[in-house]
Amino acid sequence: MEDKKFLFKCCSKVRKLVNLWEFLDHGTDVLKRHWETTYTFNEDILYNKKCVDIGIWHGICNAYALKKLKLQTTHGFEPSKDFRDICSKLCPDTKLYSTIDDLTDTINTDVIFMLGLIPFFGTEWKEQLDNILQKITANYIIIRHQTYVDAKEFKNKSTDKEYNVLGVTNYNQSAKIEDVIQYLQEKQWKLIKKHEGLDYKTRNVYTFQNDN
After folding, report:
1. How confident is the model at residue 155 (pLDDT cuts 50, 70, 90)?
2. 60-69 helix and 81-90 helix, angle to the nearest 10 degrees
3. pTM of the model
4. What is the pLDDT of residue 116?
5. CATH classification for the domain delimited by 2-210, as one of 3.40.50.720, 3.40.710.10, 1.10.357.10, 3.40.50.150
6. How far apart are CA 127 and CA 142, in angstroms?
């Protein structure tokens, strides 16, 4: 019930920007699928901290995390202007950017979120990760990632969306989770937690700690 009250308040803030029933349905789905596996699972490192979210989308979970965990999202990156407009209503204190390349100063934070992001990097995933970690320093990285092995798993509608900045047309061009883990560990990021659920597309969450 508390989740519903929160979502209804969100609806009142974005009522001029969205179809309310679609937004409510989406928000309910997001909290149901991601809150426990991503935020509650990492509550010990998130409570009363600051974070940067790369791929912040609507910012629903970020607003909820501020309420429940006192987790402040100081910066968010989201290529879609429509999504940034929504996020600005739900997270008014978050500085929003289109892409990491718009960042002019280095950010120092507690946690970097990259949830469902890496598949959109395609074959350039190492270069994109390096670019992010050069511009943002943190104690932890939390990623949600799935390994695609079948080209049919790529949803064609994603190629038309503004957030597909690199124009990836086939998710199986992207990294396997084993490669991501190995690469980050080579960069002195230690894997300290992993949540691998039956629903591999939404529940595979990996938490890394800066070992430098």
Report:
1. low
2. 20
3. 0.89
4. 86
5. 3.40.50.150
6. 18
